[in-house]
UniProtKB/TrEMBL annotation:
Taxonomic path: Bacteria, Bacillati, Bacillota, Bacilli, Lactobacillales
Protein source organism: Lactococcus hircilactis
Keyword Cell membrane belongs to the record: no
Catalytically driven reaction(s): L-homoserine + acetyl-CoA = O-acetyl-L-homoserine + CoA
PANTHER family linked to this entry: HOMOSERINE O-SUCCINYLTRANSFERASE (PTHR20919)
Name this protein carries in UniProt: Homoserine O-acetyltransferase
Length: 310
């Protein structure tokens, strides 16, 4: 899928080496199609890394996508310069009058805090409320999924006795759902979190359905709203091969309590390079979301979303 982003974005040289098609403005204007307008609220501290991970997964269908990156104005990033954010990111006030085919809300390293104690929580809730009328479909990732379920359905998160950390198998409970078109009966997905939303709480909500369920502490993997407007992914399908490895050694170096990521290092030996067994399903997951939940359903004139809310 051609991805249209700012030509000076740091991710472009890396993606170009992977043969990811990045389209410039001149070529985009010659295509007689409307690009899908996708906005990514990037709450991760290492924003450039997350940009690469997500753009990689958005690049596998023949559609044109116009990507806008969003950051919270109420949070001062410690890992990304203000200059970088000013050049490549927008704030909510700058885009709130626009309409989008899709929104991605990433995870964030704040899951052990109560939602209301996250200092950008008020701004985030404004965005989630705005998305009801200005976005056709929203994809929530990890903490973003827990935050969305809490805000939209009042389902609070529950602390885990032990960090859910590793690669976990998930069984597909709704195999006919188009999100899993082309999937096997089970797939693998990375998890790295201290909290969850209990399966019993989700199952008791009439507006939600569980699409995929993980093993042991992973529990829920993917949840969908029955109106098909929101998908909640509890893991990190976008993670690179070495992301969990970097987290593990980072915490070891900082003398933080951390266990080996499960089902990750061969023979549980951190000296061995992990094998990636989730990239194909992750790519298919994002492709199916774009195709079946966005492209096939979103109005051609995206501003008609306003009419649909009237």
């Amino acid at each position: 899928m051609p991805i249209k982003v700012d030509q000076n974005l740091a991710a472009i040289p890396i993606l170009a080496k992977e043969n990811i098609f990045i389209m410039n403005d001149t070529r985009a204007q010659t295509q007689q199609i409307r690009p899908l307008k996708i906005i990514i609220l990037n709450l991760m501290p290492t924003k450039a890394v997350t940009e690469i991970q997500l753009l990689r997964l958005l690049s596998n269908t023949p559609l044109q996508i116009e990507v806008t990156f969003l950051h919270t104005a109420s949070h001062q990033s410690k890992n990304t310069s203000a200059e970088y954010l000013n050049q490549f990111y927008s704030t909510f006030d700058e885009i709130k009058q626009n309409y989008y085919d899709g929104l991605i809300i990433t995870g964030a390293p704040v899951e052990e805090l109560e939602f209301e104690k996250v200092h950008y929580w008020k701004e985030l809730t404004m965005m989630m409320e705005w998305s009801k009328s200005h976005v056709f479909s929203t994809l929530h990732i990890c903490w973003g999924a827990q935050a969305g379920l809490y805000y939209h359905y009042h389902l609070d998160k529950t602390p885990l006795n032990k960090k859910c950390f590793g690669i976990f198998e998930s069984d597909i409970k709704k195999p006919l759902d188009p999100l899993f078109s082309g999937f096997d009966d089970a797939f693998y997905i990375p998890h790295s979190r201290h909290t969850t939303v209990l399966k019993e709480k989700i199952a008791s909500c009439d507006a939600l359905e569980i699409l995929a369920q993980g093993e042991n502490e992973a529990q829920i993997s993917i949840v969908k709203s029955k109106d098909n407007k929101a998908i909640y992914i509890f893991g990190h399908a976008e993670y690179d091969k070495d992301t969990l490895s970097q987290e593990y050694f980072r915490d070891l170096k900082a003398h933080k309590p951390i266990s080996l990521p499960r089902n990750y290092f061969p023979n549980d030996d951190p000296n061995l390079s992990p094998k990636m067994n989730w990239h194909a399903s992750a790519t298919l997951l994002f492709t199916n979301w774009l195709n079946y939940y966005v492209y096939q359903e979103t109005p051609y004139i995206i501003e008609k979303l306003k009419e649909n809310q009237a």
